Amino acid sequence: MQTDLLEPQIHPTAVVDPEASLAPGVVVGPYVVIGAKVTIGPNCRIGPHAVLEGRLTMGRDNRVFPGACLGLAPQDLKYQGSDTEVRIGNGNTFREYVTVNRATEGSQITQVGDGNLVMAYCHIAHNCTLGDRIVMSNAVQVAGHVTIHDSAVIGGALGIHQFVQIGSLAMVGGMSRVDRDIPPYCMVEGHPARVRGLNRVGLQRSGLDSIHGAASLQELQNVWKLFYRSEMTMAQALEQVRNRWRHGPAATFSRFMEDSLAPGRRGPLPATRG
Prior knowledge:
By secondary structure, the protein is α/β, with parallel strands linked by helices. The protein has helices at 200-206, 208-212, 214-228, 234-241, 248-260; strands at 9-10, 15-16, 21-22, 27-28, 33-34, 38-40, 45-46, 51-52, 55-58, 63-64, 69-72, 85-88, 93-94, 99-101, 109-112, 117-118, 123-124, 129-130, 135-136, 141-142, 147-148, 153-154, 159-160, 165-166, 171-172, 177-178, 186-190, 193-198. The strands form three sheets. An eleven-stranded mixed sheet has the order 1-4-7-10-13-16-19-22-25-27-28. Strands 2-5-8-11-14-17-20-23-26 form a nine-stranded parallel sheet, with no helix packed on it. An eight-stranded parallel sheet has the order 3-6-9-12-15-18-21-24, with no helix packed on it. Helix 3 runs antiparallel to helix 4. The protein is elongated, with a radius of gyration of 20 Å.
């Protein structure tokens, strides 16, 4: 039976504002609180004691576990009550006591894409942008204005500094301290975190070689070595690779490094030597 043909099922102890919009197939558990500006797409399941407030828009097939709080005001001293927003895509899982805060000012948003797994006790702060298929392990604390790209894997019990960017298919070891950008396809770990090498297992599982050809991974290895294993500075390495690759993983890596080295950015993490 297709649940999206059913009317929303709301537990009698839940408090749902009559102005909230709940699509067919939504299931709301005991003691849930849902505010007036919340929109929930088809077939979402909202677990007991969850709180959904503010301008929160959620797509279909999301799962919100007990105690999660989505769309509440940001923990930011600059916040002056603006009607900001959280937008969440489809097929995400927010485990127990996850918090996702609204943006701080004006028309800004906090955005979460599709198919992400956010494990228990994670915090996603104001103005963050998460892509698709990210795995975020327990107790990850993400500060404001952080961007995490598609298919990144974030280990548990760590902090990510504000304005940091984490590239696609990066893997971050648990209990690391992430205070600068993490390039795509890299594996990092440590306190403070350092680049340890390419995320080879993740690259193999991703099927990038079948999409871009086997030579594409060798090109990625070559450009990684220029930045992290040559005697050049990163600025010198960037001059070597700028416009050299226009497609594939090497081009994605090069563009990320160019953006990260731009004025006003935190810059990429250094690597361990050897």
